[in-house]
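Reproducibility note. Readers wishing to regenerate the assembly model reported in the main text can use the exact inputs given here. Chain order matters: entities are listed in the order in which they were concatenated for prediction.
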Amino acid sequence: MKISAGLERRLIYSILFIAVALPLLIPIGWKTDISGYTQIAYDLVEHAPEGTIALISFDYDPSTMTEMQPMAEAQIEHAFKRNQRVIATALWPMGVQMAEEAFGKVLLDYPDKKYGVDYVNLGYKVGGMVTIQAMGRNLREVYPTDQGGTPYEDIPMLNEVRRLKDIGWISSLSSGTPGLKEWVMVARDAYGVPVTGGCTAISAPGFFPYVNEQRQLYGLLGGLKAASEYESLLGRIGSATTKMDAQSVAHMLILVFIAIGNVKVYVTRRRKAQ
Amino acid sequence: MTGFMNLLGIWLSALFTLSIFSFLYKDNPFYKFAEQVFVGLSAAYWLVNIIYSIMIPNLFSKLITDFSGNLILLIPAALGLMMLMRLHPATQWISRYPIAIMIGTTAGISMLRYMKSDILNQVTATMINPFAAETTGAVVGNLLLIIGTLCGVYFFYFSKKQEGIYAAPSKLGIWFLMISFGATFGYTVMARISLLIGRLEFLLGDWLHLI
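Running the prediction on these inputs yields the following structure tokens for the assembly.
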């Protein structure tokens, strides 16, 4: 039976659609190994002392929240678990809402954490690299108030923070520009603050070279798989872990499709040659 | 009322998601409608965002509250107005000045940062003793890092014809590049499948309540 190219394409989409949907409906529970990159990122937070003030920059928007939001929740949870305090900023306008959503979810398990004491949302600032440079000199000048309009000096946890060097570690959860690269270039390479981060899977290969001997990046969370690895390290089954079943099934299916495609091309070439 | 608005939002999201997915079958009016609405909404969102998140807090409110203390802000304000001159053909030339300043400033700032982060630190990170690592795997990894970097860079060296012995590192460089392209493709697939998972999770969970 000969299948037309148009029908073949639709068939592939339909099978892929079902293959991704089924594990979401009936979870398989496959485990994932922890990669070195995720372990380094985890260790940075784990080994930072209690009371450390961390900064998580929400440099993404809802279009990539499937990959990024589990990372944000896991890192906030890890910081809270270690009694560290978190400053949220955003180089993307909708990062502010992403931060609010992530804090909202984590706070369900940590109801004792107080706004202004244990965490704060400073909101969005335009400017990318220039903004980070200005934060390196004086954080208060860049953020005179938090997202809700409370003056910087009235927020207790910010009394100890004057500039980026007062921050224990920085994590940029980034799905484009400005984002992780700008944080590495300025916060790490100019001000020497340890920087880790997460990015969408598509941009992960571009960031791996920064995880090097120079420690430009302390590990990297690349895509949904890394988010699920981080959840495993925290010892919980989070939203990324449940989605990884679907991801794994889809990957296997695509491998099968690639194999079928190659066999098909091989057979067609042989027939033509004969 | 809030409950009804939430429900309406979920149904609208589901409708637009399915409309976009319908393109996989073939181009159709539902897809076109969803696409146009998305473009219009994005443009409107950015306009409002620029006014409320950038213009008002960074310019207008500062000038209104303390005009004499923020006189310097009149310079970017003037440059911004000059940029808008681009909209009229007769005054279009004026916009070249703010564009020139923007390009010059961006190039100046980026040059320094890229030089340090992407050249100096990257080169330094490759200048390592490969045998200093603790495990055999790490030693092999270090060797691959050094050989891969050298051969990859050599592939883009065009000042001498690459033939004979000079072609060997270049060919090895191609292998490293091909493997990196393969890895990039794998990650791209993962990212795209993640997007599909996100939408299906919404459809099956928030909309249909099946999960």
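We highlight two features of this model. Chain B touches chain A through 37 residues (CB under 8 Å). The first helix of chain B runs from residue 2 to 21.
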